[in-house]
Amino acid sequence: MEFKNWFKEKVNIIDEYLGQVIEAKENPQKKIYEAMNYSLLSGGKRLRPVFFLGAYELFKDDIKEALPFACSMEMIHTYSLIHDDLPAMDNDDYRRGKLSNHKKFGEATAILAGDGLLNKAYEIGLEAAIKLRSINAIKALKTIADSSGTEGMIGGQVIDMDCEVKISSIEELKHMYALKTGAIIKSSVTAGAILAGANEEEIRTLGTYAQKIGLAFQIEDDILDITSTQEKLGKAIGSDAANNKITYLTFKSIDEAKKDIEKFTEEAIESLSIFGDRAIYLIELAKYLTRREK
Amino acid sequence: MEFKNWFKEKVNIIDEYLGQVIEAKENPQKKIYEAMNYSLLSGGKRLRPVFFLGAYELFKDDIKEALPFACSMEMIHTYSLIHDDLPAMDNDDYRRGKLSNHKKFGEATAILAGDGLLNKAYEIGLEAAIKLRSINAIKALKTIADSSGTEGMIGGQVIDMDCEVKISSIEELKHMYALKTGAIIKSSVTAGAILAGANEEEIRTLGTYAQKIGLAFQIEDDILDITSTQEKLGKAIGSDAANNKITYLTFKSIDEAKKDIEKFTEEAIESLSIFGDRAIYLIELAKYLTRREK
């Protein structure tokens, strides 16, 4: 199958699952389901669940079993975007070309919608783990949980928000990126492999791949914030500069940054060599990420 | 052992565990550990983990195994208090006699500290489940997760916050209470029993006990908001009236409410009869809750 079709097939399966996971029940708290679905179903690229399924497929075919775990990654990602957009955080009015959650539903509901999505990720993961009765399922969930917490995504956001933590070198910036966006990209790949029963070397190798890709992806984001248009990006451009944010481009020129993206992408692809041809979709996925709309 | 000593012993074990669960690492995001510990270690009554251990002990003695699960309940409870206190929610400046989390650390950190505590609850629960390798551990975690989500605690907070949802009867109020505070009190008890391997009838019976106790506890809270002092309660009194909140006392007099507390407590205790003398501490716990500081 061509990569494009493979990717499209995965996104369709993921979108179908996500479309029904939060049932809009007719009860007094129904507003929360609307708010959760508003952000969850607003056209995300579904990269994290696709990474998860891509890694899982290296070892096992029955992706139906993996789907709840893969989609829990998207729910955690979505909750983090809702909370990051809040006035007390980045104060962003738009996300993916639509009003951000708190602009649409109010701050209280947005906070609770984020909480609800985070909690729901574990509800569906645990439900799937009970069905599978497999220790790998619990280990996969634990990997997801660790990457989402204060030693992962939340920790990165803390550093990013904290004016007292001054990022003064590219190494410090890379550390922050490794937590804020890198950790759950990495766990998408490694948890997929863990669920499928990969061995330690395979998991470690896939972790290296994902770390490199995650960094390339973040640098790309920094470049897009300068070179893209609001229409293409779905959110305000130039916001990093306006907020005096330290980004990769604080330390490197756009050309240098683009070369680094290529370098990290190549290194990521090289690390997959132990899998041979089986890794074709993960290789194409790495290339796809560096060809995003400029 | 006398109930008082039993209770104190449990609280000590819980406090010891909670005191070390969030390690204040020397890293760039260390502020988050301080903020999480500030609320987690601010003298809560530890009722939810005590309920958990009390139910667990009906069936098994090795409460060390149960401790991470019991304490995950306290972390979920604490995160909910941090988020409920936020300006966009109840806008409370004090909690347990201290500044609320956002007054002390700022809103962004308070939101992230809440997120961090919720996530950490699952991190420690999953870690313990991996060690135990028991399906009951996963089922207990799933019970905890369900009670914390949009069909439980979060759902209750949504109803409580949503001005468009008009609570116009005592039944509607009871439904909101059953979600907002009742659900995780119930799951503290039932998840403790599930982890210990209780059968379905035992779990159902304990669920009834916890539901009645949860309601009595909430009515007591409504009374205390009127009759207590700020010093004793550790937070502003009269806030329900000031915020025009619908409470149990909107529908009943204080005397009627006190009688209902007694009635629900008695019913809760009666439901434990199948356990005979084994349930002595859960019975005493029910009585203890209705004897709180007026």
Count of alpha/pi helices of chain A: 15
Oligomerization category of the chains in this entry: homodimer
Q: If interface size is counted as residues with C-beta under 8 Å from the partner's C-beta, which chains form the largest one? A: A-B, 56 and 56 residues
- Which sequence of strands runs across the widest sheet of chain A? 1-2
User: Structural class, from secondary structure content of chain A?
Assistant: mainly alpha
Strand fraction of chain A equals: under 5%
Polypeptide structure, described:
Two copies of one chain form a homodimer. With 294 residues, chain A is mainly α. The first copy, chain A, has a single domain (3-289), classed as Orthogonal Bundle (Farnesyl Diphosphate Synthase). Chain A is 72% helix and 1% strand. The first copy, chain A, has 15 helices and two strands. The first copy, chain A, has a two-stranded antiparallel ribbon with strand order 1-2. Chain A is globular. The first copy, chain A, starts with a helix and ends in a 5-residue tail after the last helix. At the A-B interface, helix 2, helix 6, helix 7, helix 8 and helix 9 of A face helix 2, helix 6, helix 7, helix 8 and helix 9 of B.
